[in-house]
Amino acid sequence: MKAVEIKKDIYWVGAVDWAVRDFHGYETPRGTTYNNYLIMDDEITLIDTVKYDFATYTLKNISGVVDPARIKNVIINHIENDHVTSLDCVMDLAPNATIYISEKGKKGLERFFDLSRWNVKTVKTGDTLTIGKRTLEFLETPMLHWPDSMVTYAREDKILFTQDAFGQHVASANRFDDEYEISNSPVELEDAVVDYYANILMPFGQMIKTKIAEIQAKGFEIDIIAPDHGLIWRKDPGKVLGMYLDMANGKARESVAIIYDTMWQSTEKMAGPIAEGVRAEGLNCQIIKLRATPTSVAIKEFWKCRGALIGSPTLNNILFPSVAEFLTHLRGLRPKNRIVGAFGSFGWGGGAVKESYEVFKQMGLQTVEPGIQLAYRPSLADEEACFEFGRTFARQVSEYHKGF
Length: 404
Prior knowledge:
Elements: E1 4-7, E2 10-12, E3 15-17, E4 22-23, E5 26-27, E6 32-34, E7 37-39, E8 44-47, H1 55-63, E9 71-75, H2 81-84, H3 87-93, E10 98-102, H4 103-109, E11 119-123, E12 128-130, E13 135-140, E14 150-154, E15 159-161, H5 177-183, H6 186-201, H7 205-217, E16 224-226, H8 237-248, E17 253-260, H9 266-280, E18 284-289, H10 295-304, E19 305-311, E20 314-315, E21 318-319, H11 321-333, E22 339-346, H12 352-363, E23 366-367, E24 372-375, H13 380-401
Parallel strand pairs: 8-9, 9-10, 10-11, 15-16, 17-18, 17-19, 19-22, 22-23, 22-24
Antiparallel strand pairs: 1-2, 2-7, 3-6, 4-5, 7-8, 12-13, 13-14, 14-15, 20-21
Helix pairs in contact: 5-6, 6-10, 7-8, 9-13
């Protein structure tokens, strides 16, 4: 890819990672991008760098616009490895540039690099940097999604550079949302946003609401939202802001995700009649088998639905390993405003359903109890009990959903 002008004299100079399929345990079937941005002004300014493996790509893109030695300022919005590990490659070519970073960002950056060789200045919310005819304003966004995180606003161009916020893991020859929607679909892009939020930003809903309110209170006019992953929002930046507010407020479909795994198909045979019971109450139902589905997809489907039923056979008196792994991922994401229940099968002794409810309570989720567990393979009478359990759960989901 070559540098792409996103507004006059402002360029995307990042890299497209078509091949990545595992992003710190989060599956990325669409690949991803590492976006960073070059502003041509009296003081040439680079916003963020890229993952080390792609350093040559960003340097080539920068060089296609300007000699990297002329860069005067490097702004680091976020110090995660995929955004900062090529910083030394940039600074080798622009040794006189000044780095601007949050205080917590600087402390973290010291764990990557020897900062004594560079000029590093810390900034806080409300600080500005004049680079010629442009003024850049900084807004700290701690825990969105790391302690160091911040965003940078280009006043005159009305561009908000948002590091990981509002991004998506999408590799594409397109750089902008409107271009991508023409060659793919708006639904696919929206799904990528939900997938990204559910697997990365779910724990930070309250912070997201606070920071969006802070942006609005500052009166930032926004023509473009430029994240560090995926497509750049220029068609309707307000759309992704609205999606984030909806997700931060716990918006979900009045539907049920049945997420399970099975050892000898007994738990699997329970999932079908449970789903039929849910549908009998008029709710849509999604069935997800964990070992046949990436964990990140199961997390996304859980997040999209108001209710979820987790199914597990008992192995050695505890949860089946794949179900335990899923619940561990989910517990770290700290979901809210969801109602859950559990089902499963066992041989000589149960335990998985009980443990599921213990994990639900650790997460503070609303529960429908008791769950349903069966010995060995379900009989016709057991299947009828599963159907009724699905109906009961669906009614509880509908009642709970009324509160949102």
